[in-house]
Predict the 3D structure of the following.
Amino acid sequence: MANVIKLSKGLDIHLQGKAEEKLVQLKSNGQYALVPDDFEGVTPKVVVKEGVTVKAGDALFVNKQYPEVKFASPVSGTVREVVRGERRKVLCVKVEADKEQQYTDFGKKDVSKMNGQQVIDALLEAGIFGYINQLPYAVSTNPTVQPKAIFVSALRDKPLAADFEYEVKGQELEFQTGLTALSKIAKTYLGIGVDSKLEEMRDVEVTVFAGKCPAGNVGVHVNHLDPVNKGEVVWTIGDPTVVLFIGRLFSTGKVNLKRLVALCGSEVKAPAYVDMLVGEELSTLLSNSYDPDHHVRIINGNVLTGRPTTKEGFLGAHTSEITVIPEGDNADEMLGWILPRFKQFSVNRSYFSWLCGKKNYALDARVKGGERHMIMSGEYDKVLPMDIYGEYLIKAIISGDIDRQEALGIYEVAPEDFALAEFVDSSKLELQRIVREGLNILRKENA
C-alpha cells in the first residue's frame, strides 16, 4: 500500500483545449535538432562535423565539463548544420533523418543482475544519462557524485499537461525496467497521483500526492520525503518519459527517444496526442492545427514553464505538450480593466467569473500589469506546498545574500516550483528567471 501525502496548498488552472485521449498519426518531414539549452547546466562540445552520417544513439555533443556525459542523436541520418549564436554558443545540432533508420546496438541487459555503476556506465555510453537532473541547483547531473536518493514524478498536473497514465499504457514493462535500473544506483522514490495504476510498481517506494498543482513537481516530493541539505545531492526525474527511455535501452539495447506529445490549447482545432521523437521539427505537427489568421503564442511545453517557440522550432528534450493559446497583443477591450470579465480567470476574485462556478478558460499570454515593488502579502505561500518561505527566499536572491538563501532552503528548489507563484504574483516579477539566476550564481560560488 502506497503512502499518501495530502497537500492543502496549490492552484488548479482550468484551461480550454485539453488533448483528447486519441492518437493522431503524423508523417515527419525528417528534420530533427538536439538543443543543448534543453539540458540545464550543460556546456556543450560538439563531437560531430557537418556532413557526417550518424546512427540513432551516436553522440552529437558532450558536456564540456564532464565529457563522459554524451547526448545521443534521436535519429540516424546526416548532420546538416551546427547552429551557433552569439560568442559561438551552440544553439542546436540539426540532423536530416534517413528513410530507413539505423540504430547503434548497445546490447540488451538484464538490470536485475547489474549494479549501480554498471547502470550509470550503460546510460553514459548510450547518451541518455544527461536527461537526469539533480538538486541542488536543478541542473543536468554528473556521474561523479553519488546521490543519496533518486526521485521520479509520474504525476503531471500543470494546466493542459499530457496524461502520463495514457502514455505509459502498454509500456508498463519498460517503465518497470527503468525504475529497477535506477533503484540499483540509490533508493528510488516514485510519486504518483490519486487512483494511479502505477501504484504496483516494484523496487521503488511509491507515494501518492493528493492535492492541487504543483503536487506533481519533483521538488515538492523531495521536500516532503527527503529534503536536501547543504552538501547532499539527489537525482530527480520530473519527466517520467525519461524512465521509459532508460527501460527501452536495457530491454532492446537501442536508444529510442519516442514520446507521446499532447497538442493542446484553446487555439488548437482538434486537441489530441501524437507520437514524436525528441528534437523533431514542429512544422509537421502545427500545420493546419490552428487558424493562421489568429495571433497565437506557441509554447514548447506547458503554459507555466514552457518556452515560446515557432513552427520552425523543435520538440524539447523534456517536452510532453505543445500548447497554442491566443497571444492577446491584438485584444481590444472597451473600458479595459473596469469590465466585469465573466470569461477571464482571477485568483483573488477581482473578476466576476468566480460567480459562474467551475469552468474552463481561454486565457491569453498577456501579463496584464507592469512590474512593481514586491508586496509581502503571503500570496506565494498559498500556492507553494513546500516548507520554505518563498517571498523571503526571492528577496534574498534579489539582494544576493547567499547565506540567507542557504538558510531559506534554496538547495531544495527549482525554477518550476515558483511557476504558480509567478502566475499569482501581483508584482509581476519573473520569479522563475530570478530563481534560475540565483541557482547559477550559487553553483559558481560553490564550484
User: Anything to note?
Assistant: The chain has a mean pLDDT of 94.
